[in-house]
Specification:
CATH topology of the largest domain: Uracil-DNA Glycosylase, subunit E
Largest sheet: 6 strands, mixed
CATH architecture of the largest domain: 3-Layer(aba) Sandwich
Number of helices: 14
Number of strands: 8
Distance between the termini: 44 Å
Length: 291
Amino acid sequence: MAVRTSSWPEAALREMRLGPLWRLRARAAAGADARLGPEVPEEVPADVSEHVSEHVSEVAAICPPTASQVVPGRPLVQKSEGFARSPSPSLQARDDGRANRIAILGWEALEEDIRACRACPLCERRRQAVPGVGDRSARWMLVGEGPGAEEDQRGEPFVGQAGRLLDSMLATIGLARGEDVYIANAVKCRPPHNRTPERSEIASCLPYLERQIALVQPRLLVALGRPAAQALLQRELAITSARGKRFEHNGVAVVVTYHPAYLLRNPQDKAKAWEDLCFARRLMAELGDRV
């Protein structure tokens, strides 16, 4: 016998088309899963925390680890296997002198350099470059594909319809934009007609993304979509086969899921994306606090 759970953030669940949610009475009585970690920090904005903070502990009960994610006697944090180890040559090709120069920039100089960048053809049709936004000492760092039309106008990533969906997705696991979360893109300028960035364009922007990661020092990177995953992992992969696995980028754990723009076109996969966020939440708890 199951009972309906109506206390989750209604706006977020409606946006993701995941409601109504149901859970077994036995699970409800069991309480929070110890692996989930602490409650949502008190600094989460009131419009999110009043609905989420007291129920973040239910995420583990509603989204327990699947058999493909947890192996008896083995920790949740484990490296995936079965993917090609050779990086794509086109993603590696870049000017080492330029990369070395970018690798020592501070935040202000880095963002100025991004806005003035002319390293690839994407600069020719942009209104402005879009560096990134959020908590510069965040444990969570989300990496998307590239700016869209609204992001190109406003100079901030994920501010359009896909951004609103991303905010709702974050709220369901007790996170909020700018609160322990930093958001960036694989490329910093809008590709024409919102097309997928080419490998050469991703390679040109990769030093900027790597410098952002080095400055933020996140505990977990969440790749939103295939181009972001390829930029971070330097290999070809499919989202369907990469989901639910832990990868690494220079020693930082990486989780792969769908891009919010894809989910808007394919709402049937929103539940899968939510499962990925639950997996990421458990993985963060397994990683523990930054030393």
